[in-house]
Amino acid sequence: IMCASAKYNTRGPALIPRMKTKHRIYYITLFSIVLLGLIATGMFQFWPHSIESSSDWTVEKRSVHDVPVRGDLSCRMHTCFDVYRCGFNPKNKIKVYIYSLKKYVDEYGTSVSNTISREYNELLTAISDSEFYTDDVNRACLFVPSIDVLNQNALRIKETAQALAQLSRWDRGTNHLLFNMLPGGPPDYNTALDVPRDRALLAGGGFSTWTYRQGYDVSIPVYSPLSGEVDLPERGPGPRRYFILLSQMALHPEYRSELEALQAENGESVLILDKCTNLSDGVPAVRKRCHKNQVFDYPQVLQESTFCVVLRGARLGQAVLSDVLQAGCVPVIIADSYILPFSEVLDWKRASVVIPEEKMPEMYSILQSVPQRQIEEMQRQARWFWEAYFRSMKAIALATLQIINDRIYPYAAISYEEWNDPPAVKWSSVNNPLFLPLIPPQSQGFTAIVLTYDRVESLFRVITEVSKVPSLSKLLVVWNNQNKNPPEDSLWPKIRVPLKVVRTAENKLSNRFFPYDEIETEAVLAIDDDIIMLTSDELQFGYEVWREFPDRLVGYPGRLHLWDHEMNKWKYESEWTNEVSMVLTGAAFYHKYFNYLYTYKMPGDIKNWVDAHMNCEDIAMNFLVANVTGKSVIKVTPRKKFKCPECTAIDGLSLDQTHMVERSECINKFASVFGTMPLKVVEHRADPVLYKDDFPEKLKSFPNIGSL
């Protein structure tokens, strides 16, 4: 047994290595076969197939093996856009080149894309007729392909990407702009164009927050063909037959059931329409909607509702949004993560209500809380958005190019007001009275005007403090007391600039805004005789801000006007809030031209009303400037407290108990005379750059900025 065991053991070790060697060879062979198969499959799958052109067209062949799927999500204007191609342009306008039309076919001679659609042809025509267009490819800043990718349903994805890559200036899509309105396809319907586009900018209709490259792509509307086919006359704002209306077809069953439950709960004020199934032959289904057996004309029926629901479908972007805006119906947008069209510049809060999908059952109560006055403003704004940016492919194309242009030339960008205000109130770009293309020179300085009655001690302190401001050029005291002479010349503070005292014939608040001949500077600082807390740094900084915005009121005490829903009228608010719509002229810079307008061109009887009530001259000036320029005020520095420490209710006008009530009456009176509410609410304040920084005070330009 031992011998047998020994014999077995001596053979065993020799047998085992031979078995391992056989297995090793077997596995290596098997692995090699699998590896070669994978390599062959990969080469076949990903090897670039060039698109051959027909004999009628000359096409440059180029490999697209480095084009990623869809776009580079990390792209931003400073990383993927070559601004140096735009160069210097005295008109601050980008130049756009459109590639010439070419026919692209695959290796079998089959056309890669269909004939250019009517919509894309209109878009290219609009660009070629605009001031952005250039036919010189070497001068171009932006390139637009003549390849129509508006509708992904009509595209062969891979071949279209190869055609784009053959464009002579493609360079991974740098400085190229693609327009797409219907992205994605079944079953997942991606929210951005599936065609590989690398660095190309995408003007897309239906972006989500996941696919939208902020500040790089442009979210555009999905164009509605009905815009060019149906003429809906503008309907004035006000109550309508239905409160909520839904006109979309082919909705998700869950959405429709929730809306039908809403209709059952609220009766005839909610109308849920659907596709018609009993139409006569020849009647276009796209122009009709039905509810039970009742047939409605579409889109005319949209004008019968106050709010119109815009729900997400298979795609986030829906053409019905354009139809709703055209009808002047306030869109209720229920599409989570949807990037609204042109949201980079358009303030959709002024024209729509956005409700999360999970809040759909609460929609009725949410909309009921919107005040009627706000609804009417939103109806007007909705129609204006359609007229300006939705009504045609031309409007969509030019708005897109203007947004890109504003990114390239931000110092010449269109303002918020120009993008969002209808022509009736868009004064800033048309009737601005100052015509100041340049910043007023700092050397000219400003004239300080102090209105006073008999608070001599406080007046002298104000003069002393204001005289410390480096840019002060002259100080003008308006003595408004006819029963008392001003102090003798020897008693006045000795200051480095000319001091002039003007005596008035009557005690009127409007005297502070008279265009005195002594005002030789463009800038005026109106300041009360009890504003002793402002430092010279704060005043100097305010003047520097005014030089940047010489057509606005730039001041320190901020105030707000609010709509009182219970009383159904405007209300004056002096509490500290995040918003401001006025700055009090007890301490404010403005252009001297507004003194002339206040004295000689103030609408109606406002000037006499102010003098009779001895109140609200500052509110009247805010109304005047806002109405003429269409712009908001600018509040500077964080200071909020402006009460004179020595003032009491006896000599402090603003401390009177009836003062606040009367100021609210002023706002309603002025709004009635102007026929509109010109004041604009903003959440903005200007502070010095290093105001809050932990930085040596001696290195700050304005170190002495008060916290309150």
Task: Walk me through this protein's architecture.
This protein starts with a helix and ends in a 22-residue tail after the last strand. Helix 7 packs across helix 9 (372-390) and helix 9 crosses helix 10 (393-408). The chain has helices at 2-46, 77-80, 118-128, 157-165, 226-229, 253-266, 320-326, 363-368, 372-390, 393-408, 416-420, 456-466, 536-548, 593-600, 606-613, 617-629, 659-674, and strands spanning 96-98, 142-144, 177-180, 201-204, 218-219, 242-246, 270-272, 288-291, 294-297, 305-311, 330-334, 353-354, 446-452, 472-479, 499-503, 523-528, 554-555, 558-564, 569-573, 582-583, 587-591, 634-636, 685-686. The chain is built from 17 helices and 23 strands. The chain folds into three domains: 59-223 and 392-426, no CATH class; 234-277 and 284-386, Rossmann fold; 442-642 and 668-686, Spore Coat Polysaccharide Biosynthesis Protein SpsA, Chain A (Alpha-Beta Complex), CATH 3.90.550. It is α/β, with parallel strands linked by helices. The strands form six sheets. It has an eight-stranded mixed beta sheet, with helices on both faces.
